[in-house]
Design goal:
single chain, 1 helix, NapE_TorE, Nitrate_reductase_NapE
């Protein structure tokens, strides 16, 4: 048995070792699928908030004369 530690032996238990290819695949999934869904949800949520506030408070601008 060798007394030297391999660099992979220093990993904490439960830590997964990802290769560069797996990391690029995870990045591509996040960049191509998850972030666009989050962006559409945020913009849609903001639009819904503005729409509901205008239903309650009325349209923007000076009050009608």
């Amino acid at each position: 048995m060798s007394d030297t530690l391999d660099k992979n032996d220093a990993r904490p238990d439960g830590a997964h070792r990802f290769g560069r290819r797996a990391e690029l695949i995870v990045f591509a999934v996040i960049a191509a699928f998850i972030w666009p869904v989050v962006a559409v949800g945020v913009v849609g949520g903001y639009g819904f908030l503005v729409w509901m506030s205008q239903l309650i408070l009325g349209p923007p601008g000076p009050p009608g004369t």
